[in-house]
Every structure is written in C-alpha cells, then in structure tokens.
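so im writing up the methods section and need the Bifunctional RNase H/acid phosphatase record in one place, dumping it here so i stop losing it
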Amino acid sequence: MAVRAVVVEADGGSRGNPGPAGYGAVVRDPATGEVLAERAEAIGTATNNVAEYRGLIAGLEAAAELGAAEVDARMDSKLVVEQMCGRWQIKNPGLRPLAAQAAALVGRFETVRFGWVPRERNKHADALANAAMDAAAGLAPAGPVAESPREVAAPEPAVREVAARAATGRATGTDPATTPASWEPRPTEEATRLILVRHGETERTVQKRYSGRGDVPLTDRGRAQARATAARVAALAPSVAAVVSSPLARCLATAEAVAALVGNPPVRPDDDLIECDFGVWEGRTFAEVRDGWPGELDAWLASTSIAPPEGESFVAVAERTGRAVDRLRTAYPGETVVVVSHVSPIKLVLRDALAAGDAFLHRLYLDTAGVSVLDLYPDGGVAVRSVNDTSHLADL
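--- predicted struct ---
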C-alpha cells in the first residue's frame, strides 16, 4: 500500500577510506516509527562518502517504491546533507554522478527535506552499513542487496538546478574538505551580523501556554522588556541596517521599540519569521495537551517532521526561517540586522548555526526579550557570538 510521507535514514562507510565499503538505509512511517523497508549492500572498495551517497540513493529508491510523496531524509553525514541542499560544492569528481542520481530521484517526490542527525539518532542505518562493510571485508555474509539504479523521471526545474550543480561542481558555500578548520579570529566587518531578539512577555508566556499564531499583545512588563532590549541592542550595534520582524503584534511592538533606539529604520515584517502554528493546541498548557492528545504529543516531541493536529511541523518552520536567513545574508553583506521573532524560529536558526541535532531544541531555553548574536560570512562560515543574553533584564 502506498504511503503519503516517510522518513528515510541512510548511512554508509568504509574500513580504511577507501576500503571495504557498504551502506544501509531504513524507511520509516513518521508517525509510528514502523520500519517499512530496509536496504543494505556491500559495494567492494570505496570511500566513506561514496558509500554514504549510495545509502541515500537506496533509501530514496525504496521510498519511491512505496509510493511516497513526501520524504524526510536524515543522515549523519554533514557533507552529503549540505551538498544535496546545494550549500557546499562537490569538488570530488567521483561524487558528482552519485549526487546527480540522488537529485534526479528527489524529482520523483512532491517534497524532500534533508536534515543532519547525530550518529546516535541514526543507529539502525549505521548498523546495516556496518554489517555491509563486514560483508565487503569478508567478515560476515552479505546482507540484503539493493536493486540496481533504475532510469528515473526528469526532475522538476528546482531539482534540475541541484542536479546540474552536482554534475558540474557548482554550488554556493564551501566544502569542508577544502576549507580547513581554524581557531583564528575572523574579521567581523566581512560578516552579516544577525541580532536575534525574542519578543517581550505576554499573558500566554506568563501562563506557559502554547502561543503560536494567536496575536496576543505584550504585557506592561513585556513593554518594559522591549525598551530594555532596545537599549541593549543599541549598545551592541552602533549601526543597524534593518529591523525585520514577525508580523504578529508582540514582535512588532518589540521591534518598534528597538528601531526607535538604533536610528529608527522602518520595521519590515517577514512572514517567514512567524511562530510555529500549534494548531488545536494553541492557547493550551502543556498539561492540557498531555491530557487531551498524549499520543500526538509524544510523536511531536519525538520528530521535527510531525505537526500538532491542524498545525505545522518544526521541519516546515526551519525551511522558512532558513529562507529568511539566506535573504538577509544576501541583502545585507557586512551589515547588522536585528531580527525579532519567537522562540521556535530563533531556536531553529541557532540549531542550524551550531550544526546541532534536534535534541538541541528541547535543551535550549530562550527567555522573553533574550538576545542572541551570530555572524554569517560570505563563504558560508558561521560564528555564534552569544545565546540568550538577558543581562539587560536584571532590574525588571
């Protein structure tokens, strides 16, 4: 039976890089976690990256065979995820045909989202890949063998662009294999600096209720927090190129207070910065949601691809906040931008800036009117300067 949405977990590796290599891929039901398909194969002598791409291809093929329309692809290979998203170049000629093949497979689905997960979140695919590597090294019988790659339908225009970049090695950003890590300080004047501000207090934040698209105003204390935050931002940034904000009133009021102290640039609303849509949970406490929707809550907490009933998943929120960040990096090179938003979008921006896993979202606490600062460099580099600074709120 065809399924609408699936999660693909894929991995690959080699004993020696290059050496005896293999891959593993698992296809799951996103709501229940049920395994719908497994693929694994020993592929002889190859590099880690080749095996990782082969695992992704096998997982996408299995998802297509199941008739899936939406795929959430998860890997612990930062390189493959960033290259498939078009953010890193593919300079290794041996990887370009594999990336192009994966991009063509993407065109068979309505939606494919790529996400990095830590290895401990990818244990099933990792175990299959290790078994396949053992088989390639002659240490164990070969496991299930994936079918040979098939001809696939032509991808949509956006996917054609990814495939073309994969085939030619063109992309924005950099490949970690060619950009050495360094502790050396980088010049801040080259970076686009984002000052991320969570809005001030509302009645719903005081009562610890889900506060998504409901347009609730700031409390008196929230307005005082906004003024204190404005003073803090003005101290951090003598010159601000723009103030962008979620279109909801609690953010706009906070943004207007900030703008008044940093040269009064116009506040520009951006719909991509709006809070997550919590659907039927809007306005309810966590305890009320636990009592009324226990299964749905557990599924939501376990996966960023799951949305609250009639709501929006964190994967969807991350897609739009990523668009907003990319626009700001492009529009304001070397300048400072104040971004006023909500707890979920800011957490997701910081998660991606720190290359962290999804567990980061549950472990990071962001106060109302807290300030975080990150620098975005033209070559794709990121420097997180501070997270949830609340020193300006000490007297409130």
